[in-house]
Every structure is written in C-alpha cells, then in structure tokens.
UniProtKB/TrEMBL annotation, chain C:
GO terms for cellular component: plasma membrane. GO terms for molecular function: dipeptide transmembrane transporter activity. Residues 97-306 form the ABC transmembrane type-1 domain. Keywords: Cell membrane, Membrane, Transmembrane, Transmembrane helix, Transport. The chain crosses the membrane at residues 12-29, 103-124, 136-160, 180-199, 237-263, 283-308. It is found in: Cell membrane. It is a multi-pass membrane protein. The keyword RNA-binding does not apply. SUPFAM superfamilies: MetI-like. This is ABC transporter permease.
Length: 610, 277, 315
C-alpha cells in the first residue's frame, strides 16, 4: 500500500487491530490481530458466520462503536491518516465524506419521518456546504445514478413508500453523495430477494468502476464473495484464519474452517446428472477431516400420493370503501395445483410476495382457501377435519427463536403434539422426548431446559424433533434453514435427508434459496405473484428453465466460483411486482405446456413480452 | 423505561412497604385501635399526645386511626374496582384479539366510546344519576378502567398470536380453546399483572379526587380525599389536619407507583407505556 | 388529505354517540330524576310539583320526540335550562368555558416546555446526575394528586408565605397581571404532573430511538450532533409522546375539575360540582357534553399532529 498521491484516492490499511467489548465481568475480545489492505478500486470481502467479528470491524473503521464500552488497539489508516487517533470533529468530517457505509437492513436504515430526498441532500450539505436548492438537484442526480425511476418525483416520498431494493439504492446514493475513497458495505444484500440482490451488487460494481473507490464488503455469503471480491479475509470467532485472492482461496483453501465453509456452500448446477437429493459433505473444523456425503437410495414411491392440492386460491381484501366494497385484494395464492408422493421432496421456490409461505399454511389448514381443495392422504382438509389431519401434516418454521413457546421446557415442547391429541402416558411421553432428541442429534438430558438456552441451530433441531412426535407423513418446512449459518444449515439439511431415508417422509420444502433447493428436492415448483409458473423434476427445471421468471431467478443466484463470474450487463433493473390487484381484477386463464415428462410451464402472458 | 426513581432504592423496598400497607389495612378492624368515628368534642384540634400520636381532628377523632381506616377504604375500593375491570376488560380484549372480525370491531368501538368520557367526569355523571357512595363508586371506577385492560390484553394477544409458536401449536391440531388458554394466556399474563397494579394506583387517585369533591366516600366514613377536603376549611387553625392526609395519600400513591415500575421492569420489560389510561 | 377528513368524520360520529348515551343515561336511572331532585331533603316529593317539572323538562313526551328535540337543541347550541334556577345552561357554559380553556392551555404548555427538553437531555445523558435527579422528581411529581399539590401550594404560598391569595378569579380585562398570577398556581398544579409523564415518555422513547439503524445511518453520514438530535431522533421519539399525551387529555380535563375547585376558579367545574350536588340533570349533562366534545376535539387535534409528524399515518 503506497501513500496516496494527491490526485488518486487513498486506500485503507488495517494492521494489528484488536477490539474488545466491556461486559459485566471485564473485557471480552471480539477481534484479534486483524490486518489487511484495500487499494483504491479494489474490493476486499471479510467473510464469516455470526459472531466472527466481521461487522464489528466495519463499525470500528467509521468510529461507530460505543466509546465507553469498547477498547480498540492497532492501526486503521486511510491514506496517511490514522483514523484511531482522529478527534471526534475530524472523524465526523470523515464519515459520509471520505468513508461511507451501507447497512444490512434497508427497511430500518432510513429515517421513517424524513423524506428520501432530504436524507440524501443533508449528507451533501453537511460535507460540501452548498445551498439547499443545489443539494436537492445533486440528490436527484444521485437518485438517477442509482437507477431510481422518476427520481425528481420520488424526492419528496418517504421510506415506507419504497421497496427494500429501492431503499438500498437510496442508501447507496447517500453513501456516494460525497464520492468517498472507501465504501463499507455490511451485508448489503442479505435482506433482499435474489433478483434484487443481483441488481444491487451490479450497481455497487458499476459505481465502484466509475468512482475508483475501495470497497470493504462484509458478508457471510460465499456466492456474493465470488461475485464481487478481488481478495478475501476469512474470520472465525474474532481471528483471521485465511487471507488471499478470491480465486486462490476458492480453488485451494488451506484452513479447515474455510474448507468447511466452502463445502457447505451449495453450488448451483453441481447436481446435474442426479435425480435424488444429496447431503452435504461435513468438515470437522478442528481436525479438517471431511465426512463424505452418503449416497442416498431413492425414497420416492409414486404409487402413494400423500398430498394433493387442486386449484387452490386465497385472496385477502386489503382496501375497502366505507360501504364494504373491496377496491383492492392480495391475490396471495392463485389456482395452485400440485401433488406430493411418499418419500418425495417438492420444493416451492419464489421471492417475496410469491405466495409460497401462504401455500404452506393452506396445506396445513392454518388458513382457509377462498377456492380449491387440499387432500391429505386422500382425505379433504376442512375446518372440521383439520385437527385429525394435523397428525399427518406437520410444519417447521423459519425463525427458530419465535417458533418455540418460551414458557415450555424442551421436553414439553416436543411432546406438546402428543398432549394435544391425548396420546401416550406421561412416562411414555418422557421416553418419546428423549428418543426424539437423540434422533435429531441432541442430548436427551436437555429435555428439562428452556428454549432460550439454545442456539438457532439447536432450536431448529428441537423443532424438527417436535414435528416427528406424531409420526407424520408430510412435513412442511417453511424456510426452515434460511435463518441459519452456512455450516449449521448444511447439518440441518443433512438431518432432514436422513429422516426422509428412514421414515419415507414427504417434504414440502419452501425456500427462496435456489442452491439449497437443488440439493434437497426431487421436484421443484416455481411461484411468482401467487401462481406456479413452472413445475417439474428438479433436474429438468435447473438444466432447462423455460419460463422467463425461472430463468431470471436462476441467473440471479450468485455462483460461488470466481471463475464463473456472471456478465453483469445482462441484469435488468426490474422490480418484483406486487400481488395486490384492483377489486375488479379478473384472473387471466392460464394454460400449461408440458416441455418434457412432468415438466409443466405456464404459457407466458403478455406481461413477459419484451 | 429504565432508571426511574425506584432504582435508587433496593428493589424490594416498595414491595415491603406495600405489603405493610396491605396487612395493616386488612387487619385494621381487629387491631387494638380506637373507633375511627368516636368523637371527643372536648379535645377538638388537640395536638399529638400519647393516646393520639397524630393528634385529633375537628370532632376530636383520632387522626392516625382515621388515616389507617381511610387507607383501608381506599384500597378496598381500588382493589374491588381493579378486579372487576381486570376480569371484564381482559375477557373483552382477549376475545377481540383472538376472534378478530366483527367481535374485535365492536369491542374496540365500545372502549373508544368509554374513553371519550374523561374518567372523573364519567364518575361524576354516575354520581348524579345514582347518588354518591361506594355502591356507585366501585362499578363506575371499574367501567372507567375496563378499556385499559382491554387495550393491553388485545395488543398482547395480537403480538403473541403472531409468534410462530402459536402457529406451530395450531398446526399440530390444537383447538382454539387450547391455543387460547394454554398457549396465549400464560404469555400475556405479565403485561396484565402490571396493568392491574397500575389500575389500583390510578383508582386510588381517582377515588380520593371524587371524595375530595364530596362525591365519593360519604362522611363520616374516613377517606383521605374527604379528610383533605374538610381540612381545607380549618387550614388556618390546624394545618396539620391537612398535611397528614396529604402526606399519607401521596406516600401511598408513591409506594404503589414504585411497586408498579418494579413489577413492569420484571414482568414486561418491553413495555414503555405509562398507565393504560 | 383523505386521512384528515376521515379522522374528522370519525370524531363527529363519536360526538353523536356521546350525545345519545348521555341522553339515554337519564332513562337508565332507577326512579325518576325529578323525584330525586325534589326529595333531597328526605321527604317525599309533592306529586303535583313533580308533574309540573316533568312537563317543563319535556320528560312526559315519547322518548323519540325528546331525542329529536335534544338534537335540535344541540344544533342551535341549546343545552336546556337548569332545574335549580331555570337559567340557560348554554349561556352559563359560554361564560365559564374560556376560563377552563385558559387553564388547560397553560397547563399543557407548562408540561411540554418542561417535559420534552428535560426528557431528551436525560436520555442523551443517561445515568448522569441530571438524569437521576430528574427521574426522581418525575416519579414524585407523577405520584402527587393534583388536588393535593394545589392544596399544599395554597398552604405554603398563601397561608404561610402570604405571597398570593388562596385562589379566586379576576377578569383579564380588569387586571391582566393579577389574572395571570391567579392562573399560574392552578395551571402549575395540573401541568407539573403532566410534565412528569411527558418527561418519562420522552426519555424512554428517545432511549428506544437512539440505538436504531437510521440513527446509525445519520452518524455514518457524518452529520453534526445537533442535526442528528433534532431531525433524526427527536422527530421519531415524539411519536409515542404524542400518543401518550392524547391518552392523558382525559386526566388533564379531570384535573381541571379538581383544581378549579381547589382554587375557586370559576370555570366549568364549579358549575359541574354544584350541579352534581343539586342533582341538576340539565346542568350536569350540559357540562359533560361540552367537556366530552372538548375531549374529542383535542384528540382530533392530536391526531392531526400525529399525522404531520409521522408520514406513515397519512394514507
């Protein structure tokens, strides 16, 4: 890292960085001996799972950590300026000016009571001291630069009128307001849908080229790293375990943790040639030894249909006149039909508003359909049969922190379904709880403890154990692994596959994560705005996507392979549309075309033209 | 809210003081105390003495004994009203939050209407119609505080029922009653207990205000509000007659408030609301 | 603009419901209000007199007719005549209402001027001495009932220090200085308790806003502290303050009743208390209707304020 010349922008240089937080027993070290450089125009990614210290590092560069409770040692230099010894006043002049930052949560990172334009303009005014009117013009120019349509009109709108992707564009506009030398992006796309993620990554890249700034990219997603980073730093519990160019590390990782992380990352397209799911290879982080993935026998028994859904629709009124006339509706699920055979996994994929979770709730009887029917093992799901049918269909939820009642012990939570259906005696229940806990890889001794004592991965195992208590034939897994760290995610996916082997369970696996879906499913249904646009065998969908939406979805998935970096000029700036329709909206009749055996594609409507 | 004044003391103090208040008021009739109504016109306005620690009032009645019985009356009215309000308000709120739709709409409109009357005025309207006294006071105070329980119960039910574990129990095939009573209710108990203690505190204030105006507890029964009201007349000759009930009332309310704050910190840490009303 | 009209419409409906309920309340009473009025001294009422007064009040006519009559009266601001001295209730209210409004206005002003700045300052400096002392005082001020505070103020300032008279009223036009002086103690009695509540809510909601993502964004932009506090923290922290303040309007109005009584301030409450004591039904319902209307009106005002502060409400 050379000293910056006056004309070019300075780079960032971190060395010997140690960060500790104060807690009630003294100081806890969260980052140890961290060092790396970023040259102007270069992108460096810090990669790690939760608790690795990657976000803390980002905040320390901007001096945004709470002063009293933090101890920072080492050196953070921007060009020839030592940031750790700057006065609060100089630090303020630096923030948003020479170093800018964008955050993970676009939904909460903007002030809800201030209009969008003003939030961009105030940064310009603070650092460049220009007039309000000039700042407004400049803000509109920035909004256009980050591709916000009709920028001048949207200047006066408020954050709640913007979608997540658009808000992240606003955050980027704010960050770029003063042409910073360094942009820190802390998980900027994690909360976004995959097609929107592709657009935002694209935008950051494009702007970086224009401005020649250095980018520090914080992420847990190897796909994103492969997509954007020139070099990467892998962190594990506060330590750097590996550092190097992205190509080098992806090709030849040395540290066991990096290997474990990379092996747990599903690669889209890695499954071609196989029709059955395949578990992840698990690396032991301490020894670096890999346990090879077992080859699974086929579990699908097409002769027994566990679940049949026919022409299912559900609509919710969202707006009514005073006289009760509905003027707008969410068409959450529209004419969905699908089947699930014994031992089969059907994945439902889609982005926000696609109706995939609603479909899951309709199948379990948590919601009542407006039209259509659901049959479980040949019996119709109705409000009067829901209770008895629930023995055959069980559900796993996304958020393991809210899906366990905080007032019940683990043992009670697991046997709650038995209690509801008045099955087994109290002693039998204890035995069942113990054996189920063992089955999902937990110690039977934890039955007496409460959910808050466990990590996300452990809780999700407890939830799996709970769904098994009634020996169901169908399990609906609604984003069941989405909230988990990569390595934990791989373990839970393997657990689900093992259970399927053992009990010939049928899974409806609802997910937005195409890569996990490719691993786990036999068949895939792609949903968009409440409708299934394409359904068929997994191999067919992934190797030969026909519907434009399926293609866009697959193309948008970042590939964890730096050599296969995609051509970013192909990405279109379209937003995900909303399933809210006018009250008099007539649902168009859809027809499906069979591309290959079992592979059905919705005839493309006029909205997909162009 | 954190760091309220109660934090300065040891956590337990308000609870102990409240326990003392409750025990003394509960046992007042059996304690070896004088009759609070016993007059002794010979020693009107007498100062403190061995028999009468706080002195005697304008009818020569023992002030300390009257204070104790006044606190007792105040707490009886407050607890009775809070229990009634708690039962009806919670039932309504839980019903509204769980059944949604028309029931919810009607319940919420009902409380909106009750809330349109400032509490003191609603009580005064009732007194005009039904005459003063505890028989009017308790049901009226109860009605006044039904909305706050309904709101708290309704909001808590809504927030709890959106949790995945409620969906999970439903997806296991649990009946509505089971979801309601064994899953939701235990999880909303915290905010409701806190609301109950707030209601007791606010009811004490409201009752004393009405009695002060002569529209609550009727003389000669001892009541703090009434004692303050009559003490005003003899302000010049016997200021202590005014100071004692003022101090007792304020102390009682401060104890109740401090207890409520601690309770809320313990049971309902997320709530930053003050007083339901 | 639509939200504004919708709220206004809802307020009008509320007002109509209140009028109807108050009208109906007289018919829920066990026994006859007129007999109650006349039998106050214990003896039973003379049937002829009862009949005459019933005739006067129109209580003999069918209920629907009475209701229509009542609504018509209200439309022309006629609240009926007092059962005690046959004077016009509306005229008396019109005379006294401004004095009550004055009291409410000053009390609200005192509470906001003290509560909001103190709350923000305390939240920005949690755990420091100002925060501790202010929190302690707020706890105390919130606990002391208005009439106790008022009474003690009289005891100290007029009885012991002889600084001011024990209460009373002088018209502003006659002696502006004296008028304001007499207004000060009652407004202060109400305002101080309310200030404590405003303080605690402001402090709590500021503490809640401080760690939020958008405040971090504002700091990451390198804005000055002043701008962060005023434009990013305060505006959002005020939203719950407005909500709670609206909920406190009821006790504010109740507080004026007590305080007017304590300080002999000839506002609506003197009229109300004597009306209740005399069981003068038209007077009591008249005052309650006016105060409830005031209550609804103030709530509407708060709603508008709410909409101006929080763009998400304006739909």
């Amino acid at each position: 890292m050379s000293i910056a010349e006056t004309t070019s922008k300075p780079g960032l240089s971190i060395s010997g960085l140690n960060i500790s937080f104060r807690n009630k027993d003294g100081w806890t070290s969260v980052v140890r001996n961290l060092g790396f450089d970023i040259a102007p125009g270069e992108t460096v990614a810090i990669v790690g799972e939760s608790g690795s210290g990657k976000s803390v590092t980002a905040l320390s560069v901007l001096g945004l950590l709470p002063q009293q409770a933090t101890r920072i040692e080492g050196s953070i230099r921007l060009g020839d300026k030592e940031l750790l010894s700057l006065s609060p006043k100089d630090l303020k002049a630096l923030r948003g000016n020479e170093i800018a930052m964008i955050f993970q949560e676009p939904m909460t990172s903007l002030n809800p009571t201030m209009c969008i334009g003003e939030q961009i303009a105030e940064s310009i005014i603070a650092h460049r001291g220009i007039s309000k009117a000039e700042a407004k013009l400049e803000a509109i120019r920035l909004m256009e630069k980050v591709h916000i349509p009709s920028a001048a009109r949207r200047y006066g709108e408020y954050p709640h009128q913007f979608s997540g992707g658009m808000r992240q564009r606003v955050m980027i506009a704010i960050a770029l307001a003063c042409k910073p030398a360094l942009l820190i992006a802390d998980e900027p796309t994690t909360a976004l849908d995959v097609t929107i993620q592709a657009q935002v990554l694209n935008l950051i890249k494009e702007l970086q080229e224009e401005e020649g700034m250095a980018v520090l990219f914080i992420t847990h997603d190897m796909g994103v790293v492969a997509e954007v980073a020139d070099r990467m730093v892998v962190m594990y519990r506060g330590d750097v375990v590996e550092e190097g160019t992205t190509t080098e590390i992806f090709a030849n990782a040395r540290h066991p943790y990096t290997k474990a992380l990379l092996s747990a990352v599903p690669q889209l397209g890695s499954m071609s040639g196989s029709n059955d799911p395949q578990p992840f290879a698990i690396y032991d982080i301490n020894t670096g030894l890999a346990t090879d993935a077992a080859v699974l026998k086929s579990t699908v028994d097409m002769s027994e249909i566990l679940l049949e859904v026919k022409d299912l629709s559900v609509r919710f009124p969202v707006q009514q006149t005073i006289f009760g006339k509905v003027t707008a509706r969410v068409h959450a699920v529209e004419n969905v039909s699908l089947t699930l055979a014994r031992g089969e996994t059907l994945a439902i994929v889609g982005e926000s508003g696609s109706g995939k979770s609603t479909t899951g709730k309709l199948v379990t009887g948590l919601l009542h359909p407006t039209a259509g029917k659901v049959e479980i093992c040949g019996k119709p799901m109705r409000s009067d049969t829901r209770q008895s049918l629930s023995r055959s269909v069980q559900m796993i939820f996304q958020d393991p922190f809210s899906s366990l009642n905080p007032r019940l012990t683990v043992g009670r939570a697991i046997t709650e379904p038995l209690r509801i259906h008045k099955l087994a005696t109290e002693t039998q229940r204890d035995e069942i709880a113990a054996s189920l806990l063992t089955r999902v890889g937990l110690s039977p001794n934890i039955a007496k403890r409460y959910p808050h004592e466990f990590s996300g991965g452990q809780r999700q195992r407890i939830c799996v154990a709970r769904t098994l208590a009634l020996k169901p034939s169908v399990i609906i897994a609604d984003e069941a692994v989405s909230a988990l760290d990569v390595s934990v995610k791989a373990q839970v996916v393997n657990l689900l596959l093992e259970l399927q082997q053992e009990m010939q369970l049928g899974f409806i696996f609802i997910s937005h994560d195409m890569a996990v879906v490719e691993r786990i499913s036999h068949r895939v249904a792609v949903m968009y705005l409440g409708e299934i646009v394409e359904i068929g065998p997994r191999a067919a969908i992934f190797s030969n996507p026909v519907h434009p939406y399926t293609r866009r979805l697959i193309e948008a998935v970042p590939v964890p392979d730096p050599s296969r970096r995609r051509d970013r000029h192909k990405i279109t700036d379209s937003e995900i549309r909303s399933p809210v329709r006018a009250g008099d909206y007539v649902v168009p009749t859809r027809t499906y075309r069979e591309v290959s055996p079992g592979h059905l594609v919705q005839e493309v409507g006029p909205e997909w033209a162009a | 809210m954190t760091g309220t004044f109660s934090k300065f003391k040891s956590d337990q103090i308000p609870a102990y003081l409240l326990a003392l208040l409750l025990i003394v008021s509960l046992l007042a009739p059996v304690l070896p105390l004088q009759d609070p109504l016993l007059m002794d016109t010979a020693s009107r306005f007498a100062g403190p003495s061995a028999q009468h620690l706080f002195g005697q009032d304008e009818f020569g009645r023992d002030i300390l004994v009257r204070l104790i019985f006044a606190i007792r009356n105040s707490l009886i009215v407050a607890f009775a009203a809070a229990v009634l309000a708690g039962i009806f308000g919670t039932a309504l709120g839980v019903l509204a939050g769980y059944s949604r739709g028309l029931t919810e709409m009607l319940a919420m409109r009902f409380i909106d209407i009750v809330l349109c009357f400032p509490p003191l005025l609603l009580a005064m309207l009732a007194v005009t119609l039904y005459g003063p006294g505890p028989v009017t006071l308790i049901p009226v105070l109860a009605i006044v505080f039904v909305p706050s329980f309904t709101r708290v119960a309704h909001a808590s039910v809504l927030s709890v029922r959106s949790q995945d574990y409620v969906e999970a129990v439903r997806s296991m095939g649990a009946s509505n009653a089971r979801v309601m009573f064994s899953t939701i209710l235990p999880n909303i108990a915290g905010p409701l207990i806190v609301q109950f203690s707030f209601t007791v505190a606010v009811t004490v204030v409201l009752e004393s205000g009405l009695s002060f105006l002569g529209l609550g507890v009727l003389p000669p029964a001892p009541s703090l509000g009434l004692m303050i009201g009559t003490g005003r007349a003899t302000l010049a000759q016997a200021p202590m007659l005014l100071v004692w009930p003022c101090a007792a009332l304020t102390a009682m309310i401060l104890i109740l408030n401090a207890f409520c704050d601690d309770l809320r910190d313990r049971l309902d840490p997320k709530s930053s609301k003050i007083r339901g009303q | 603009m639509f939200w504004f009209l919708r709220r206004g419409f809802a307020s009008l409906i509320m007002l109509w419901v209140i009028v109807t309920l108050v009208f109906m309340s007289i018919h829920f009473v066990p026994g006859d209000p007129v007999e109650l009025l006349l039998s106050q001294d214990g003896g039973s009422a003379d049937p002829a007199t009862v009949q005459m007064i019933r005739e006067d009040l129109g209580l003999n006519r069918p209920i629907v007719e009475q209701y229509v009559e009542k609504l018509k009266g209200l439309a022309s601001f006629d609240l009926g005549r007092s059962m005690v001295d046959d004077s016009s209730v509306s005229a008396e209210i019109a005379r006294r209402l401004p004095r009550t409004l004055e009291l409410i206005g000053l009390a609200a002003l005192i509470s906001l001027i003290i509560g909001i700045p103190a709350g923000i300052y305390a939240a920005l400096h949690t755990g420091r001495s100002f925060d501790r002392v202010a929190s302690y005082l707020a706890g105390f001020a919130q606990g002391i009932p208005v009439f106790v505070l008022g009474t003690l103020l009289i005891l100290v300032f007029s009885q012991m220090l002889k600084l001011t008279s024990a209460g009373g009223f002088v018209a502003f036009s006659q002696a502006p200085g004296k008028h304001m002086l007499l207004l000060l103690m009652p407004s202060f009695s109400i305002g101080i308790g309310l200030a404590a509540i405003v303080f605690r809510i402001t402090r709590a909601s500021t503490l809640e806003v401080l760690p939020l993502d958008y405040v971090r964004t504002a700091r990451a932009k390198g804005l000055g502290d002043r701008r962060i506090v005023l434009h990013h923290i305060l505006r959002n922290a005020l939203i719950p303050v407005i909500t709670i303040f609206a909920l406190q309007i009821g006790s504010l109005l109740g507080g004026t009743v007590l305080v007017e009584y304590v300080f002999n301030w000839p506002g609506l409450s003197g009229m109300l208390v004597s009306g209740v004591n005399a069981r003068d039904y038209p007077t009591v319902t008249g005052v309650i209707l006016v105060i409830s209307a005031l209550f609804i009106g103030l709530n509407f005002l708060v709603d508008v304020l709410y909409g101006l502060t929080d763009p998400r409400v304006r739909k």
